[in-house]
Fold:
Amino acid sequence: MMRALYSAALGMKAQQTNVDIISNNLANVNTTAFKKDKAEFKDLLYETLSRADVVAGDGKPVSLQIGHGVTISAITKSFSEGNLERTENPLDLAIQGEGFFVVLTPNGPRYTRDGSFKVSNVEGQIKLVTSDGYPVLAEGDTEIVLPETAISSITIDETGRITYKDAEGQIQDSGFKIKIVRFINPQGLLAEGKNLYNVSAASGDPVSEEETEGPKSRILQGFLEMSNVQVVDEMVKLIIAQRAYEINSKAIQTADDMLSMANNLKR
Amino acid sequence: MIRGIYTSASGMILNQKLMDITANNVANVSTTGFKRDVAQVESFRNMLVYRIYDKPSSPDNAIGYMSLGADVSRIVSDFSQGLYIKTDEPLNLAIRGNGFFAVEVPGGQGGQQALYTRNGAFTLNSRGELVTLDGFYVLGQNGRIVLQNHGQIRIDEQGNIYQDGRFVDRLRVVDFQDKMLLRKLGNNLFEADATAQQIPFSGKILQGYLEGSNVNSVQEMVNMINVLRAYEANQKAFTIHDETLQKAVSEIARK
Structure:
């Protein structure tokens, strides 16, 4: 009886976490390059009341096992691409493919797919930075410093090479190429908020796309990657989670009713 | 009289166990690849009741049979198909038809043990190996499956894995003659008994789908109502036995 109470309580708890995850997805439906999360459930230990016993055709072929509920085993991120939105802003970049931009924060390099970049003027140096002011890194892990005239005429091609027009209208190569890295297991990345990810032992080290074989990501200038959250999907998941929560609470009620009957045996 | 008390009590204990099973099913209503448990109930062995004080071996001494309660005799998993949930993730796989993915789990004596699962939510680890979300290796025909750093992964209906058009390995999907010999271990894993006969996999693999739990909430609600009412009836029977006993003990003596 107590088992039933605990199993159903764990069911409610797991669904609560599920709803937390869904609401975070819904809250980030307009966050640039946000990647949706999904809860994965697994069943818990089984208690063996009596073991299976196969003795020459005689004996029990199956064991008597009662489970102990459920838990959330993982929260997986879906790195599927979000829709692209055309912004016409030359400093807005979207990545098509599996790559990430590298930005330098005070705590070290972090990775992001949010390409809504800006320029900042620090002590006369014009730098390409994120909305939070972190410098974007180019190949060779250098910050991208541009001449003042470049800002109005900046062009970034599909590979990330930055060119601009000088005062005479001549196209000049800035010498910078935006660094794009990829991870063997992006699901292992640690989301830090502010659209930034950090590496973990599970994600593997970042690999520069420049130095590896295989398909490369494409950079699109004048576009932003939207969140990959689909409101309809999340609403359906929300309804299912709510009903699952409800049936688990009904199980608790039933178990409680039974307990109260047991208590009424002795009058 | 006392016999009746024990019989009602065993009925209550039985229904408690049924409730435990239902609660576990209900808790796992969102668990990928979960198979609901069903209890089979068996009455205690019948016993022949004889009149006493008669000639012991005479056949017409028998009053009849009676059984003094019931208990759960088996808990079997219902392996019917769960619903398919489209996720569009390349490493989410569902099995259509019978069969299980084989995964490698650290075994007892430092060795490795093959276990089975219907949960096809897989991912890659930092070495590019295909693993479950708990980090257990998914097995192919040649052992662990190692995929490249990047590249399109395509898995066909037979379980052949291709990356950028290049054949990598074929998933080890196994089926069993008698699924009653599978034992649940938790973590969505099943263990096969040594005597379980493997048969070739005849179903299909669906990429970009997951198999949901096959728990049906309506069915479980009905189970719960049944269990509750049966429990209540047993409790009432118990109370009536008790009242009868009380009469016998406190009123008969008063005369």
